[in-house]
Design brief:
This is Reverse transcriptase zinc-binding domain-containing protein. It comes from Gossypium arboreum. By secondary structure, the protein is mainly alpha-helical. It has two domains: about 120 residues, no CATH class; about 30 residues, no CATH class. It has seven helices and two strands, in the order ααβααβααα. The chain has a two-stranded antiparallel ribbon with strand order 1-2. The longest helix is centred in the last third of the chain and has 11 residues. It is elongated.
Length: about 170
């Protein structure tokens, strides 16, 4: 599915929301992942389908013998299990373990889906994106701002305090 998740978004004549999304698209794109279903269009090495690992081509130990056009369905045995030998020659053990925890493509699994890695249900929320972007950048100054905006006085007083602290 190379190309299904665009590499970048152009910011021509569009809304402020779309310009904002385009500005941080690279960061958002890194946190999208394919959930493997029945379709045969997810590229094993180019598309992100192992959560929090990105495209597997960035994790290979050696590119010798790497069939970059392989689809995820091609790395499944006739019995319906992962062909671990293909991975053992190319990937570190921690990634192989993650792959083993992913159910292989199955005829009753439904279509492939894109999911957001920062929510338990896979659905994107502004809150989860904010928390992901913010990460561990907590600043003790923030508690000061919370106190200002939660101060039990009229809005004009809180605004004045904000100006003073600013």
């Amino acid at each position: 599915m190379v190309g299904m998740i665009p590499g970048k978004i152009t910011r021509g004549n569009c809304s402020a929301l779309w310009r904002g999304i385009a500005k941080i698209w690279a960061l958002l794109k890194e946190n999208l992942c394919w959930s493997i279903g029945t379709r045969d269009s997810v590229n094993c090495w180019e598309d992100p389908w192992v959560p929090k690992k990105g495209p597997l081509k960035t994790r290979v130990l050696s590119t010798e013998g790497l069939a970059t056009e392989s689809l995820v369905k091609d790395i499944v045995t006739v019995k319906g299990t992962w062909d671990i030998n293909t991975f053992r020659n190319q990937l570190p053990e921690d990634i192989i373990q993650k792959i083993l925890n992913i159910p292989p493509p199955h005829s009753q699994a439904g279509p492939n889906k894109i999911f957001w890695m920062h929510t338990s249900n896979g659905k994107f929320t502004i809150k989860s994106a904010y928390q992901m972007i913010k990460g561990n950048t907590w600043n003790e100054q923030e508690s000061k701002w919370k106190k200002v905006w939660k101060f039990p006085r009229p809005q004009r007083v809180r605004f004045f305090l904000w100006l003073v602290y600013k």
